[in-house]
Amino acid sequence: MHEHDDFQPQSVTHDGLPDSTSDPRVLLQETDGLLRVQLVVTPFGMPRRWRRPPAQRLARGQWLRWQVNYRFANSHGGEWTYRLDTLNIGYGPTRADLFLGTPTHHVDELAALR
Question: What is the pTM of this model?
């Protein structure tokens, strides 16, 4: 969400595995009936994340919520902006209201931003 558009939520929905070249922010791999999910963080945000959570594996019918936040410093004046990314991903056929409930897996990479 951005202030310039009155913080309207943005979302994208895909059926099937996306082409990894079209969205480099998440790596998906289907193997032996499980979906391997790894969120790729931006190298430009702070704080640096030297140790990251491992990839998550989802069975059909499961879903994952992965959250990560960043602080971006402006080189002119030291002002900074905040960004929160929330990835909700389900594996297999899902209900329309799936992401309103409690996820099967939750990865919290929220950091204290100073």
Answer: 0.78
